[in-house]
Design a protein that fits this description.
The protein has helices spanning about 15-35, 40-45, 55-70, 75, 80-90, 95-105, 110-140. It is mainly alpha-helical. It has one domain (about 15-135). The radius of gyration is 17 Å and the shape is elongated. The two termini are about 15 Å apart. The relative contact order is 0.15.
Length: about 140
Amino acid sequence: MKTQISQHSWGIKSVSFWSVLLLASAIIFIGIRFIIHPQTGALGYGIAFENNSDVAYGQIKGIRDIFSGIVLLPLLWMRMRKAVAWVFTASIVVPAFDFLIILFYNGSSDAAHLLIHGITALVMATTSFLLFYGLLHQSKNN
């Protein structure tokens, strides 16, 4: 009898595994940077703080970024490809909305930050495709 939470051969030999691990690690790093150096994190994001009371919002964003990365790590560790695929795909809304926020506040002239958020969303979408493609291929072989 198969269970919903069965483990498969997916893991360190898979490009999608490493892509998720790299992106999860990067967002954890970004979150830590927002907590330790909120002004630097805000500049990297694309919207600088206007006053010192904005620092708290940077730190709030930081802890949410850290959580966004950490939530994937146990799923990767347990090689739960289906769970990783769904959680990771749902999280594409973050860089997509980051792109829209930068576009709204900074306009289209802030190409550098638009590219950072836009390319992140595209890399995540490609990784999600690979995750689900692997699941589809795996289910055909079982």
